[in-house]
Structures are given as structure tokens and as C-alpha cells.
């Protein structure tokens, strides 16, 4: 049926081959070889997209390696780099140069206030503030500023096991 249809609508068919799956059922693909070379191009123009049983038929032209047109020579690196589009993200991050930094109202010039460099971060705490927080956390008093000497640690034994006691005088 395929050979007859293409033979009547396009031209003389040399051979028509259907593709079958492992179960013996048709995969819906056929290869048609025409007697004339221009008949394939005519089939693509006239029958590609024509509906068969409600589904569009896809007609593709398959040619031999000798008939394929040569690929164009690749462009040089300089040509390809020059054609790269600019990044939209970079443009958004750049400050606009056309916007003035100062505005005038009734003859007076007002300058825009600069944002602080550490916006969103708390300011650094002093050593005294950090010490006070440590004392609050551990629940102790401020250490005295007296000089102490360290003695070697003495180990004692109790009936429940070994315990180490550190003494600082």
C-alpha cells in the first residue's frame, strides 16, 4: 500500500521497506527509495505533515555521503568572542553613571547620605563588654587582679576511686 501510494503521488518507487519490532509488529517507519533523485525532495515538500489515521506523517530526506553539502569552515576564535552577548547580570550590578549624586531643591544642594559600610551587621563589642557577657553567662564575679602562683597538682585517692584535685594558691 505504501509503495502504491508514493508511486501515484510522487513518482516511480524503486523499493519500499517497512521496519518491524521484535514482536513482529510494524514500528510505523518505512524507507522508500525512488528511481529519480528529485522525487525525495518532492515527497518532503508535498507529504511532510499530512495526516494518516489522524497522526501527522513525517517525511525526511536521506541522502548518500557524496550528496551531502560541505560544512562551512569554522570561524576563528576572534570572530566567536566578538559575537558573545553581554551579560545582563553584570549590567544590573554596575552603578548608572547618568544619575547625579546630588539633587537641588529650591536652589539648595542636598547630597545623598552614604550607607554605612557594615550595614546589617552589629558593631564590634569591646573587651569590657565581652568580659561582662562572660560573667553573666558563667554566673561568677569579676576576677580579682591579684597575682597567684601555681602549685603542682596533688592527686588523692578516695574509697570510690581516683580523683584529681587541683589547688591554686
Write the layout of secondary structure elements.
Layout: H1 2-9, E1 13-20, E2 26-34, H2 39-47, E3 51-52, E4 55-56, H3 77-82, H4 88-93, E5 102-105, E6 108-111, H5 127-138, E7 154-158, E8 161-165
Antiparallel strand pairs: 1-2, 3-4, 5-6, 7-8
Main attributes?
alpha+beta; Alpha-Beta Plaits; two-stranded antiparallel ribbon; elongated
Cα(first) to Cα(last) distance is 111 Å
Q: How would you spell out the order of helices and strands?
A: HEEHEEHHEEHEE
* Structure summary, number of beta strands: 8
Largest sheet: 2 strands, antiparallel
- Which residues form runs of ≥5 with pLDDT under 50? 98-104, 145-158
CATH topology of the domain at 2-65: Alpha-Beta Plaits
> Mind telling me the C-alpha Rg?
44 Å
Strand order of the largest sheet: 1-2
Strand content: 15-25%
Shape: elongated
Instruction: Spell out the CATH superfamily of the domain at 2-65.
Output: RRM (RNA recognition motif) domain
The CATH class assignment of the domain at 2-65 is Alpha Beta
**Mean pLDDT across residues:** 74
Helix content: 10-25%
Q: What do these coordinates show?
A:
Residues 111-124 have a biased composition (Basic residues). Keywords: RNA-binding. This is RNA-binding RNA annealing protein. Residues 1-64 form the RRM domain. The chain is α+β, with helices and mostly antiparallel strands and 169 residues long. The chain has a domain at 2-65: Alpha-Beta Plaits (2-Layer Sandwich). It has 5 helices and 8 strands. The strands form 4 sheets. Strands 1-2 form a two-stranded antiparallel sheet. Strands 3-4 form a two-stranded antiparallel ribbon. A hairpin with a 5-residue loop joins β1 (13-20) and β2. The protein is elongated.
